Amino acid sequence: MAHYKAADSKREQFRRYLEKSGVLDTLTKVLVALYEEPEKPNSALDFLKHHIGAAAPENPEVEALRLEVAEMKEKYEAVLEENKKLKAKLSQYEPPPEEKRGE
């Protein structure tokens, strides 16, 4: 009898853990979405994988990397623009192609 209560206690602890971490809520929402789907997908498992992945909160590290990528894109665009301006400026000081051949 004591063994039965210990197993039951572990189950209850695990259930509370899942509830606190939001797993039960997320699973419930995804299962309800599958239930309410007018045309059931061929693979319920793929539906769950897709929707659980979409419902998962963003990892802070992933968000930081996204911000870094956005900053790098901005810097890249600025460098391209600066490069374009510098090439135009440099072309003012270079002799035309005809003069280069004569030298």
Automatic annotation (TrEMBL):
Q: Give Gene Ontology CC terms.
A: mitochondrion; nucleoplasm
Spell out where the chain crosses the membrane: none
Which keywords fit this entry according to its UniProt record? Nucleus
Q: Name one GO biological process term.
A: spermatogenesis
Q: Which InterPro entries does the record match to this protein?
A: AMY1
Q: Which residues form the signal peptide?
A: none
Q: Where does it mainly reside?
A: nucleus
Gene Ontology MF, one: transcription coactivator activity
- Name the UniProt record assigns to this protein: MYC binding protein
Q: Which organism is it from?
A: Chrysemys picta bellii
Gene name, per UniProt, is MYCBP
